[in-house]
What does this fold into?
Amino acid sequence: MYDTIIIGAGLSGLAAGIRLAYYEQRVCVLERHYTIGGLNSFYRLRGRDYDVGLHAVTNFASKGTKKGPLVRLLRQLRLSWEDFSLAPQVGSLIAFPGVQLAFNNDISLLQAEIARAFPGQRDNFQRLLGQILDYDDLSQDVFELGAREVLSKTIADPLLVEMLLCPTMWYGNARENDMDWGQFCIMFRALYLEGMGRPHAGIRLILKNLVRKFRALGGELKLRSGVSHIQMDGDRAVGVVLDNGQEVTARNILSSAGAVETLRLCDAHSQQAPSNAGQLSFVESLSVLARPPKTLGCDRTIVFFNDSEKFHWQKPETELCDVRTGVICSPNNFAYSAADGELADNLIRITALANFPRWNALPEEQYRLEKLRWYDRLSDSAVRFVPDYRSRVIDTDMFTPTTIRRFTGHENGAIYGAPHKRLDGTTSVKNLYLCGTDQGYLGIVGALVSGVSMANRHCLRV
Amino acid sequence: MTAAEIREEVLDILSDIAPDEDLSGLIAEKPFREQLELDSMDFLDIVMELRKRHRIQIPEEDYQHLASLASTVAYLEPRMKDMVKK
It folds into this structure.
């Protein structure tokens, strides 16, 4: 009998596990896959290390900072700044036709860029910053207001509204066409006010340190241990049955499997309406280059591009992918310390929106061909916004919505989960709580904060 | 434990929860919230650390007594007076 069972060894599950194990609970993290990380994992292919989900860690804080989500998170996990060792971005870009806005981890650059490109909106942007800083309300009503409408009340130029929305939607919006105002504020702070960074060793450094901490505190981590079933006693969850038939009991269950996915594991709730499942999924291409990207002129950390004045954020209906908008990211373009030096491999990754059902329906041979075809289309679209690096590519890889589903279990390969978040983490089942993507905090730090806060709220206060 | 020992213990807990805060200038009568970067999650940790280290259960309605160093020590004194400092 455990105090708490945690479903999923992603960032949120591991963070929750650390909190509970630190306060002497018997905790077990169950992971279906043979490796940890979920959406944010890593792998090795043909002698090279790759991250799966990580472009950059938002909510950047430099060493010695005393405020902000990253600092609070590290405190709660009893980790040190060095456990994440974030190197800051060198600088990123929002690129629309004929207008670009540069930004980095100092908001004054974006302010200056807006004053340059949208002189009439300078003061309005200042007012918007005030509203975002004042936003401090996790009530579901205000949270779910439409960001497009709220932004339009302050920012008079619709193009600037679209340009501000593009990166925030890309890095954390589960809703199609519009974004929750609350989510926008959280992402805006994470992305523009705190900024972006990356550990030299990538996501594996963070995951490795989380697992080491969790195990040192006595926590149990079981890989290849998928949960097939949550056992109920009346309206309470009392334990789980694993894929191999083994039964495990616990006082509380904290699940990062997703809201719909979790309830589907409970007998009495298998009829949950599927309409709340997320629709937005991604493809991502990885291109290994023979030379550092910056020597080819690709010197930005991230380029968020969109090829028309209106930013389209929806599942592509008629094709496998939508390459009108995308994210071009190079992990080489962070300001790593002299001791760490340059990365071993030179990489450009491009992300685009994708349609899960279409990818999922492809026969195996065609799936492989479509991957090659869309790798080319992504590159063709990206080189409209960055220098053409294509003749320097020496190796490639690609993941699709079906890859995401395989690693995360999320229905539709929905990268940011369900559009309606369960901010309080409760479910219709007693003793069963949500953490991770469907609870509401997104991104690396967001996922970790989700695990910590749901563990605190539901599993620690006895 | 004496009031002075309890005070030391609370400071030790605070330095554990917030290792980058300078606690030397902490004013006992003034709320922690006004002097330190502590949020509600950190306050929960004061409660949890007292439970972990000393097996003291503090009900949620009593959390208000943990607002400042002085009020925390006053609240803990009757509950910890029979304990021996480790």
